[in-house]
Amino acid sequence: MERDVKIVISLIILANLLKRSPFYTFLYLAAIIISSRKLWKSLPRLYITALIVGFFAELIGTRVCLPFGCYYYKNLQPQIYGVALSVPLTWGIFGFFSYLTAYQFFKKQSQRILFASFLMVIIDLAVDPIMTSWDAWIWETITSLNWFGIPWINYLGWFLTSLIFFTIYESTSKVKISEDLYKFGALIYLLEMATFVVYAPSKVRIPTIWAFLTSLIVLTLSYILQRWQR
């Protein structure tokens, strides 16, 4: 294993141990910078694209209720134009390990984009109940079909937003990721989903458990399909 891979994996593990602190973001940014040196040179383009698209999706969403539904930020600070600054940064982080996982299983561009976007939705099955329990943001849209109080349209918005920035990244980049890194994609993803369960407030632990089980089933089936195709 390359030295850079060892450092990146160590930083990601440490980030998950410190998931409820600001160090989570900084450790992931360090992992992304190190990965971009040799392991995944176009990674900064993915991160910046996800950050920009994510910010404007949130900016539009808080004003015209699309594509996520109607909501507003409350306790999550600092904010710019009503959008919490940590949120676009997190779009980039989630995009990083979702795409890495998709790259592990799919070599065809369209399949990677769709699968990575789907993985982003699974992440939000855990994230949104946690954040709303802290009043990080407040939902005004109420739908009969919902996920523990989160309107279904939010998850459609997550998928579409992810689809946009993954498509932009794929169409503007020559994507090449070292096998030494991408072979850890699914493990990193499952680590993230597992630590959501660990750090979730007790009142919203159930949705995080369901989200983790969903991710485990999806990635297990993807692994079986990959082995079968070989």
What does this structure look like?
Helices cover 71% and strands 6% of the residues. It has 9 helices and 6 strands. It has one domain. The strands form 3 sheets. It has a two-stranded antiparallel ribbon with strand order 1-4. With 230 residues, the chain is mainly alpha-helical. The protein is globular and about 45 Å long. The two termini are 24 Å apart.
What distance separates the N and C termini?
24 Å
**How do the strands line up in the largest sheet?**
1-4
Query: What value does the average pLDDT take?
Result: 97
User: pLDDT under 50 segments (min length 5)?
Assistant: none
Q: Name the assembly state.
A: single chain
> How much is the radius of gyration in Å?
17 Å
* Shape annotation: globular
Share of helix, binned: over 70%
Q: Give the DSSP E fraction (strand runs of 2 or more residues).
A: 5-15%
Secondary structure tally, helices? 9
How many domain units?
A: 1
Written as H for each helix and E for each strand, in order along the chain, the element string is: HHHEEEHHEEEHHHH
Briefly note the structural class of the backbone.
mainly alpha
Main β-sheet, in a few words?
A: 2 strands, antiparallel
Q: Give the strand tally.
A: 6
Explain briefly what this protein structure is.
It is built from 9 helices and 6 strands; from the N terminus they run αααβββααβββαααα.
